[in-house]
Amino acid sequence: MPKIVTTPPANDDAELLRGSLVTLRRRCGKPNCRCATGEAHETPALSYSMDGRTKTVTLREQDLADVEAGLARYGQAREALEAEALAGIRALTNRVAARRQQPRR
Ligand SMILES: [Zn+2]
Known about the structure:
The protein is of the alpha+beta class. The chain has two helices and three strands; from the N terminus they run βαββα. The N and C termini lie far apart (65 Å). The structure holds zinc ion.
């Protein structure tokens, strides 16, 4: 029986994204475009840092909901990790304090 290979969906429910949503504004340079005198073109983008540099992924409007969800999942995961780390610090602090109260061997 052939092995069934499943490809994960492009927008996995568990996808995490780090960074922030920004709006890029630019003028395209065409003299007759509305951006020459009026509002610049706006493009949503995900701005994130990697290896000490700020990088940008330009997006489309239809990407925004998925990106926002991925950013929210990252924030929740980071908060959960932070809470676990603080609980670990409390437990360590308690163990050290309890050890200090025991007579030295
Ligand atoms: Zn333009």
